[in-house]
């Protein structure tokens, strides 16, 4: 038992799922090797994968089943964390694997796939589209035409879901020709993070916070997702996207929704997603002077953004900071400051709810004015901190000091906490369970694009260039100015 009474048994308690056939299109690709297969392996080790479940890799390359198992064995050795040291577990897991070479754009492999899949009562059938978005529509069509999908079948689609509103709409339309919305699982892995769900537990499982969770008591909210990596190997893809499309439109907006939404009537997929959608629809347009875009320069040892992107005149942003407002009763006039970027000084993601100052200090001007801050850390050390004001210990009068009430999940849950925190594990198991709560609905994705599109069109029309910033810094100086001119400052997480 650890210091808050959570036992390893509680951490590792698994809720059984139905047996499944899970087909991973793109089963030889980077995402499958780094995330999806290791996540399935860890669920297998946790005892959550029923014995008669199967994972079927599907990709264009011709290879035998044993060659595919070799590929997955290597992937687990590289990305499987500590469980992968257990060779017996690895070999037992590999027995669940199969492989079919299929071409999403052609006829090859579909008969073999159909022959392999089982038609049994109570068996879940899911297809994970871990391929580029241009293949989402063709794959959905192939599944229908080849009789591989029925009303119960689920499909999982990866990001990016569209490049703008128009492309997201047409992707939604393509999928809707073959599948109902309740069969489509659009992944945003941020929603699978332990802390993100804890945000809902904290908000709606305690009496303490919700009465204060509004414009009357909250001064402002900051959402930061800072990365130290550059765009590296995916520079040319990223150059057509940028931080707004790659991070804000999906991850940061999802976090914003969970922070700002009204309490749903139940913790149930459509109830939660209805509330998130209302937040997106209540977002005001953002004035250009409330947006700062940046692009990292070289620090001598590492390439600049333009070198990474192989585009010497690129105007794509690798950093963005913006201030936005939600026009509803709860949040009227409360600023939300969002920032995200690459090649910053630290890898750190945090949501900070900064409460207002007390209306009057009974301790006199020397004691200063204090604010409570609830900080929800997504990485690197998942946890929450509530800053409270107390008396500085010792004699010498009433001096006040801010101290953290800190809960690091790793400390609180013990070393096994790592095992419950992988987003892909949770999300894939939710697909098998048929629970869409942590997946984005089509109308949510479209509403998010409808908000970001005019901002992007605005700077493209004006021909704005992003501000250069030093690699390893906290972003362009203008980002600090964006918040400082309101008499506020970015939270002191080192970025
Ligand atoms: P990848 O290029 O490494 O792999 C692509 C896979 O698709 C390969 O297995 C390939 O054989 C298969 N494929 C390509 N054309 C095919 C066809 N016509 N028919 C059947 N299979 C075909 O790509 P990836 O990095 O694994 O990314 C897959 C998807 O996941 C993309 O949509 C990407 O944007 C998204 N994604 C990737 C990451 C990541 O970290 N790699 C993160 C988030 C989202």
Automatic annotation (TrEMBL):
Recall the GO molecular function terms of this protein's record.
glucose-6-phosphate dehydrogenase activity; NADP binding
Instruction: Name the residues that bind NADP(+).
Output: 26-33, 60, 159
Does NADP appear among the keywords?
yes
The name this protein carries in UniProt is: Glucose-6-phosphate 1-dehydrogenase
Known Pfam families for this protein? G6PD_C, G6PD_N
- Family designation: Belongs to the glucose-6-phosphate dehydrogenase family.
Under HAMAP family, the record lists: G6PD
């Amino acid at each position: 038992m650890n210091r808050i009474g959570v036992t390893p048994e509680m951490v590792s308690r698994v809720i059984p799922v139905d047996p499944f056939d899970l087909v991973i299109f793109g089963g030889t690709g980077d995402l499958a090797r780094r995330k999806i297969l290791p996540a399935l392996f860890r669920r297998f080790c946790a005892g959550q994968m029923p014995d008669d479940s199967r994972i079927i890799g599907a990709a264009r390359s011709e290879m035998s089943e044993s060659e595919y198992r070799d590929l997955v064995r290597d992937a687990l050795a590289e990305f499987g964390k500590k469980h992968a040291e257990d060779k017996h577990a690895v070999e037992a897991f590999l027995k669940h694997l199969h492989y079919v070479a299929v071409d999403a754009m052609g006829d090859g492999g579909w008969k073999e796939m159909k022959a392999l899949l089982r038609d049994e009562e109570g068996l879940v059938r899911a297809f994970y589209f871990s391929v580029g978005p241009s293949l989402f529509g063709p794959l959905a069509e192939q599944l229908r035409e080849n009789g591989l999908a029925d009303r119960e079948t689920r499909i999982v689609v990866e990001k990016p879901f569209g490049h703008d509103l128009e492309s997201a709409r047409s992707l939604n339309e393509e999928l809707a020709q073959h599948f109902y919305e309740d069969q489509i699982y659009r992944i945003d892995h941020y929603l699978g993070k332990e802390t993100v769900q804890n945000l809902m537990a904290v908000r709606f499982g305690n009496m303490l916070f919700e009465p204060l969770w509004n414009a009357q008591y909250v001064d402002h909210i900051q959402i930061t997702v800072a990365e130290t990596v550059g765009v590296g190997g995916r520079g040319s893809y990223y150059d057509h996207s940028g931080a707004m499309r790659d991070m804000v439109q999906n991850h940061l907006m999802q976090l914003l929704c969970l922070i700002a939404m009204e309490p749903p009537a139940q913790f149930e997929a459509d109830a939660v997603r209805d509330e998130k959608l209302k937040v997106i629809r209540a977002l005001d347009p953002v004035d250009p002077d409330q947006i700062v875009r940046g692009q990292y320069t070289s620090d001598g040892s590492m390439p600049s953004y333009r070198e990474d992107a192989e585009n010497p005149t690129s105007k794509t942003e690798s950093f963005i900071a913006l201030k936005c407002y939600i026009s509803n009763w709860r949040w009227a006039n409360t600023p939300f400051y969002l920032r995200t970027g690459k090649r910053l000084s630290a890898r750190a993601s945090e949501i900070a709810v900064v409460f207002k100052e007390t209306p009057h200090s009974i301790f006199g001007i020397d004691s200063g004015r204090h604010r409570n801050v609830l900080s929800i850390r997504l990485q690197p050390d998942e946890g929450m901190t509530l800053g409270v004001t107390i008396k500085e210990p010792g004699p010498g009068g009433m001096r006040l000091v801010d101290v953290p009430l800190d809960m690091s999940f790793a400390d609180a849950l013990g070393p096994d906490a790592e095992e419950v925190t992988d987003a892909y594990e949770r999300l894939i198991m939710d697909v098998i369970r048929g629970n869409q709560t942590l997946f984005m609905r089509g109308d949510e994705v479209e509403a998010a694009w409808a908000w970001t599109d005019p901002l992007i069109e605005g700077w493209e029309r004006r021909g704005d260039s992003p501000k250069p910033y030093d690699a390893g810094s906290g972003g362009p100086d203008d980002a600090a100015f964006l918040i400082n001119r309101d008499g506020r400052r970015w939270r002191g997480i080192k970025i």
